[in-house]
Design a protein that fits this description.
The structure is a single chain. This protein has one domain (28-100): Histidine-containing Protein, Chain: A (2-Layer Sandwich), CATH 3.30.1340.30. The longest helix is centred in the N-terminal third of the chain and has 24 residues, at 2-25. The protein is an alpha+beta fold. The radius of gyration is 20 Å and the shape is elongated. The chain contains three helices and three strands, in the order ααββαβ. The chain has helices at residues 2-25, 29-48, 75-86, and strands spanning 57-62, 65-72, 93-100.
Length: 104
Amino acid sequence: MRYAIRLSSIMLAGLLLIGGCTAMTGETAGQYVDDSTITASVKAKLVGEKTANLTRIDVDTTNQVVSLTGIVESPDQKARAEQLASQVSGVKSVKNNLQVQKKQ
């Protein structure tokens, strides 16, 4: 009986801790993993792009919304980066904050 009470207390404390972590970030553990997977997939697509150098782009994902920031050399590269990001499974939308800067 004491074992059951102790185990129940430990499980309740664990649930409270997990709930507190969720409240701090606004994301559940599953959402965080999904967002991390999306970010990694978008980065892989950008690095694997053969027609343009899209390696100076930072990618962040929150609640399946991908944010692209950084510098590209042309409006075409900016559009291509957004297109690649939107093709990744699980992406709801893409915020394209890329800056176009001509190569000097």
